[in-house]
Amino acid sequence: MLFPGFDVILFGIFFVMTEGAVQELGAWEERKIIALLFIDVLQVVRVITSAAYGWSSATSQAVRNCDIVYIFTRLVSSVIPRYSLFILAFVLVSVTLLDTIYVAKLFAAGEVKKMWPVKLLRKVVSIVVTILFSSVIKWLLIPIDCLVSNEPSLSAEIHGPGSPCTPWAIPDVIVTIPTLFLIAAYITFAVVASRLSFAASPLADHPRAQATGRVEVRFACTKVAVTLSAYLSSYVTSVTTTLVLVIMASVVLRKHIQILPYHNHTMNHTRGGILSCVWWLALCSFTNSVLRQATGIVDPNQSPSQVLEWVFISLLIPVYVAGNLLVVHRRQSIERNLNRLRNEWETSVALQIEQENQGVQAAPEGTKHKTPYERFYRSAPSGSTAFDSATDALTSARMLFHMGRESDQDFLAYIVTRGNAEFPMFHDLQIFHLLSLRFIFRDTSQANMLAKAFHVQTSLALDHRYVLYSMDRKAGQESEAANLGGAQVNAISVMEFNSGMERAFKFHLASISKMKAFWHVAARKSTDRLHVRRATVDSLLNCIDEFDRARHKAKQDYASLLDKYPSSVALLRNYATFCDTILNDSPKAEKLRRHAVMIEDEAAPDDDDLQAALEHGAQQSAGTSDQNENTRLVSARFISSHRHMIMGTESVRARKLNFRVRQGGVILLL
Fold it and tell me: pTM score, two decimals?
């Protein structure tokens, strides 16, 4: 933790940045995301089939020509110098990091009036953290790229053509060292973004789905390892580096198949096939490296078996299909288990109803909580448990939830309860339980109790703390929806509305203040009753000018807010007051108030709901009526005893003036 409250600022940035991501994909949106997935992975494939990982030059060149980003890079390099790509990557990453720091300062200072930095950050992250992640790292490494390739070096640009590669010599090191620090900061930012704000990227379709972040951060680390391991070829053999890549790719693929992170099954199938291809190429790279080590062939233009490499490449399509089949098998396995549990649940519910109809009190049937011995040794037979692992329980609950059937809510509660009973120490499932209580079952009291238990824990993972923060923000936005007219709102719209209302009300109060100041100056007594002092005239004119400026800005802000949020009752009433007291436009003020009343009537509950609410309120207040009555009496006595202190002088003057008016009326009549 850099400083107290840093995590809140970090969570606020990513929450606002990811708010509003598409949750339901259309056909074209889905095709676009799949295309971006392939653009992203082709960059990884290009790097992992390079000569540094044991592949021949012929195979590497054939694979490079399939990478769209590489083709674009070669075309650009043929027109402008190659180091222009380094400058482009340097600028993109610098803008992203500086914009993040600027937004963090805005959040720390509580300033939410400037929304463009947040929107810019969302757009930039979707480009540099996902689509061009591997290529941006590669472009940033151009100053030291000459150490492992024959590409034109930055040293040649500095010292002239034909100069040796000297990235660690002066003045080259002035560029190399800051670039390496920038790469480290960029990778750190990308990993955090993959863990928290992956919904800003087209690679995910649901914000704050922690399961997706768990897989994406592993894949991001794999991409970093693939890109950077090539620069260790002079110090470590390719057999070692490729073995590490095989292990990392295996972990990512296993994690993806285990939890099925995406809520769209087409995305799960596509991602499963892509990760299978990455694992396959890593395994093939390891095989090629072992063959080169065994045969002693070092020249990349030669290959121990070129035919074998072509066979490896040709098997990519079957491997992709195999990855899809693994995902399908995993999904079918979960569905079979859900069907089994549904039969058990329906049987228990039917038995409970039958016992209630017969007047027999049903014994509460629940999953027996395991003892510490059972939790440690897992001694219970597999048939007596609902899930084989905690991850299975969470994946089953997520899959059932995203089927979107409202009739499955009771069954979903049963699944979550069974999972928590069998795996009480699994935080991921408890977090899902908390979210389901808050946003699905609308059990606010139970959700608040569970949230308090989480907040007191200090060992929660970063994404778990982010989910808790997001839940609080989301709950706050639901309460703010009434102020914005009841529409679906996001974090940016709430911040824009609150900021706009604050600014408009500030100018509204300034208008009233300048109006009072005008009459205060006008009522000021002068020692010279025959002439008005010049300073008084200047003060009056100054008050009028300031009043006009404040009135114009308040009117402009109210009108702008009304265009965006025409159904906001709070805005309509504030604007009506402004029209009545400042603009002296009573017809418009009355029209705005009627519109606000009409919106309130439309949002009012039905008579049956209102009657039920009143009966519930009467039951709640029955036991405390005496206390409420005593409180009202105490308040009335307090007001009566201090009435003379509240505008006492003004009340006396008003009574005297009323008496004089009545007296004058009587004299006129006489």
Answer: 0.71
